[in-house]
Structures are given as C-alpha cells and as structure tokens.
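Work Package 4 report. The design task specified in the project plan requires that, given a folded chain encoded as structure tokens, an amino acid be chosen for each position. We show below one input record used in the internal validation round.
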C-alpha cells in the first residue's frame, strides 16, 4: 500500500465538478483507493463519499492506494489534483454558467452573474413585500402560482430481496438513460456548463456506496423504494450538514437523483410542473435542477422559492434560461394565493404583491432597460476588443466549458 499527501488548490475545494473528475480518475485503476481529510475517510471511487469530506481550498488530503497499479494510480491522481481537476485555478471562485444573451423570455435579458447573498439579516416581510436572495437577475410581472411536487408512491411491502434488488437495478438503469438523454438535450440547448450539472447527476446515480447502502436496506427486509429512499436521505442529510454552503447545496442534487429513481420504480414520469394555460410566476418550496430545466421561459415568467441559495444548480439553470429568480424567501410564501398579481425583481431579491400602477410602471421601465442593455451587448459582441490607448485584446474561451 502506498500513500500520498496533497493540498487541494481549487478555489472552492472539492466541490461537485472536481470531485466528479477525481472519482472518474480513481475508477480507472484496479487498486483500492481511499482519501482522508482530517478525521474523515472516503472511498475515492464514490463521488458522494468524496463530497462528504467537505474539503475546502487549501485543504490537505491523504490518498492511499492498495493494489497492482497503486503507483500509477497515485501518480495520475497527483497530477490531476495539482492541475485543478478540471477547474480553472486562475479563477477565485467557482465559475457559474452565464446566460446566452439571445435566450430571453421577454421578461429579462442579461449577462450578469447572480448577485451574492446579502451579508446582513434581511428586513422583515410585510403584507406587500417578500424579501429573498437574488438568484437570477431580471424583472417579471404576472400572477403567482403555487407549485407542489407530485407525491411518489413507494411500496411498503417487499417481495423477496432478489426481486427487490432486480427492481432497483432496472429503475437505476431507466434513470441513467433519462439523465443521459437530458444531459445531451441541455448541452445542445444551453451549453456544456449547464450539461455538466446532469453529468454530476449521472455520477451520483452510479455511485457505488449509494447503491450498496440501498441493497443493504433491501437485504434487511425493505422494498426497493424504501431501501433506496433511506440510502438517499442518509447521504443527502450528511452533505446538507457540511459547513461549506456550496457542498451542502449538493444535497439537493442527491435528492433530485433519488426522486428520479423512485419515479422509475413507481412507474410515474417527470413531465415537469403542472401549470395553468397562461404565464405565471412560480412559488415553490424548492425547485430541483430537473424541475428547473423543464421550465418554459415563455410560460414561467420567474420563480420564488422558500429555500435555496444563489450558487445552487437551480439558480445556475435559471440564469442560463433567462428566468428571473429569487430564493430563500422563507415559509411566508406558502400563504400566497394563486392569481395574486406580483412583481418579482431578481436584481434586488424582492417580491412585491398586488403592486400599484406606479410600481408596475417602474418595473416595466427596468424590463426595458434590461432589454436595451442586452441588445447593445449583443450588437457589440463581435466587435474587436480594443483599449482606449489602441491596444487589441484577444478574448478567448474554452469551448469545452
């Protein structure tokens, strides 16, 4: 057995994307590979296990490898970690995919990243104002609509363990096909950065420790659905308890993948939110990445969720789709009635209820400002980048990201 100590240089530590690359690299080798951070140990071939280490920038990890190709495994992993595991080490934070200026629903058009969450406690809500965290810029005007996830039926009676394990394998495979198709669709529609979210979902789905935990539950007498749900919740809760907010937010992704498998077990589909036949502003406890990517920007003017953060995958997808969004609004929003007219301001994180004509006029002015700015940026996009003192600057991008 060999071991190696390394410092993780990534700006946001071993978050979802580099963890996925780390695990994919480890899986190339026959050796049993483990990674330790402080007192926590993880299976290097399990993305969930690696995420639960909670490794931040500058964190020290100890990698051990035991097997016929242990030397090669450590050498390759050393190079992968030191070169960033797919992250750009020159960037000070995790780059969030930016919206394409041509993608707009008439409510917003922007190239700005999500504003940071406010550092101070937000002011109290009023009868007219709900305050939240800005997640995707832009202004939406329209009626509210409460969105609730459809309940998934889970069998409480188990057949014999072998039958239940076979059912689980079939559901996981069905979910894998769905996710791979979705990943390809998202890449064509939005780009590689957004598609990477669902590549991470595939890595979660294929996580050996998640399936092993579910199988152990089945062997203890649970049905496939019960065993899978229990395993998913245990691992999601572990991630959610991490101090690092970016890593803790990945619990949503685990639950999203978990629900996809449960739907396959129950025979239900994922058709997206059931909406009225007119454009609305969605109100929800939360939206998963799978929910968000199905939203039609022509029908969903914006959304407000009770929980969530500006750096979550749901917020990233909202920005890519050009849908104004605010998150972390709290439970007050559950009392809002369908059809209530509102203004959702993704720039400031404010939801204004039953606005008067003056507020509506200001909101429409902001919408026009966004459209004008976007049009100007789009028109200038192909012009050469030349400084005021006449120096040309080459602007390039990694087409793989």
């Amino acid at each position: 057995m060999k071991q190696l100590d390394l410092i993780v240089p990534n700006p946001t530590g071993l978050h979802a994307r580099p963890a996925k690359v780390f695990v994919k690299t480890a899986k190339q080798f026959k050796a049993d590979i483990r990674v330790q951070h402080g007192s926590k140990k993880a299976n290097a071939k399990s993305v969930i296990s690696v995420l639960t280490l909670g490794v931040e920038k500058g964190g020290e990890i100890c990698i051990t490898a035991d097997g016929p190709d242990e030397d090669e495994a450590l050498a390759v992993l050393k190079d992968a970690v030191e070169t960033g595991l797919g992250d750009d080490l020159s960037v000070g934070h995790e780059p969030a995919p930016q919206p394409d200026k041509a993608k707009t629903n008439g409510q917003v058009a922007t190239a700005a990243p999500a504003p940071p969450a406010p550092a101070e406690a937000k002011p109290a809500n009023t009868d007219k104002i709900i305050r939240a965290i800005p997640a995707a810029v832009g202004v939406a005007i329209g009626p509210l609509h409460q969105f609730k996830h459809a309940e998934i039926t889970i069998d409480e009676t188990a057949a014999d363990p072998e039958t239940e394990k076979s059912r689980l394998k079939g559901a996981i495979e069905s979910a894998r096909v769905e996710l791979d198709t979705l990943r390809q669709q998202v890449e064509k529609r939005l780009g590689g950065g957004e598609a990477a979210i669902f590549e991470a979902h595939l890595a979660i789905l294929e996580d050996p420790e998640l399936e092993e935990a579910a199988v152990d539950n089945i062997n203890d007498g649970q049905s496939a659905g019960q065993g899978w749900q229990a395993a998913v919740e245990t691992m999601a809760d572990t991630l959610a308890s991490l101090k690092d907010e970016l890593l803790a937010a990945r619990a949503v992704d685990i639950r999203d993948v978990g629900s996809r498998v449960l739907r396959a077990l129950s025979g239900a589909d994922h058709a997206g939110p059931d909406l009225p036949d007119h454009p609305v502003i969605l109100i929800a406890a939360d939206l998963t990445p799978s929910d968000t990517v199905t939203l039609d920007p022509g029908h969903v003017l914006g959304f407000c969720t009770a929980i969530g953060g500006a750096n979550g995958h749901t917020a990233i997808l909202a920005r890519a789709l050009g849908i104004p969004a605010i998150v972390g609004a709290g439970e007050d929003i559950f009392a809002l009635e369908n059809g209530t007219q509102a203004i959702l301001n993704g720039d400031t994180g404010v939801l204004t209820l039953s606005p008067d004509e003056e507020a509506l006029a200001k909101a429409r002015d902001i919408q026009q400002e966004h459209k004008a700015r976007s049009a100007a940026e789009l028109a200038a996009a192909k012009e050469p980048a030349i400084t005021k003192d006449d120096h040309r600057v080459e602007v390039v991008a990694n087409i793989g990201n």
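The longest helix spans residues 161-189. Validation will be extended to a larger panel in the next phase.
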